[in-house]
């Protein structure tokens, strides 16, 4: 990064504004890619816990914390600095969910029922459409609520998950 900063400064001093803008464009692209990678990692984490929830038909405190934290982190990362637009729009999650689901199956296979299922076995057990729809429902909340409001809404959403009502009563 420091060499790019030196190049940027030199380009400006020498009046090579097209070169300076090219450097800035590259930084913007790299920044966006880093943000999208972070969103993807939280999306995978969310799906892992939704898969475990579906297969085991229960909700644990640990899973609830991970689901809640993933949604809050996705909200924070997805909102651009201008606070009015998003990196991923509400209707653009299908491709990201498809890729993240594949990774989540592998990760979840280590955790579901203490890792007794191979990824292919787990994939056959999971209702992918239901998991992805639940994830989309939770993610869509990030567009409609402030961070503070989202925390309360997520807590209410836990009751809709398998085992969520029982978990809430404890």
UniProtKB/TrEMBL annotation:
<dbReference type="InterPro" id="IPR002636">
    <property type="entry name" value="DUF29"/>
</dbReference>
<dbReference type="Pfam" id="PF01724">
    <property type="entry name" value="DUF29"/>
</dbReference>
<protein>
    <recommendedName>
        <fullName>DUF29 domain-containing protein</fullName>
    </recommendedName>
</protein>
């Amino acid at each position: 990064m420091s060499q790019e900063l030196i190049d940027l400064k030199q380009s400006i001093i020498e009046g090579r504004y097209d070169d300076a803008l090219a450097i800035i464009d590259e930084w913007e692209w790299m920044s966006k890619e880093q943000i999208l990678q972070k969103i993807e990692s939280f999306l995978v984490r969310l799906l892992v816990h939704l898969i475990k929830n579906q297969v085991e038909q229960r909700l644990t405190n640990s899973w609830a914390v991970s689901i809640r934290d993933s949604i809050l982190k996705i909200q924070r990362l997805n909102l651009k600095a201008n606070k009015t637009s998003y990196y991923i729009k509400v209707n653009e999650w299908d491709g990201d969910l498809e890729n993240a689901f594949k990774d989540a199956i592998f990760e979840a296979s280590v955790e579901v029922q203490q890792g007794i299922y191979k990824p292919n076995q787990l994939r056959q057990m999971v209702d992918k459409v239901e998991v992805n729809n639940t994830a989309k429902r939770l993610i869509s909340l990030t567009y409609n609520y402030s961070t503070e409001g989202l925390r309360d809404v997520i807590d209410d959403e836990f009751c809709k998950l398998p085992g969520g009502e029982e978990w809430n009563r404890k």
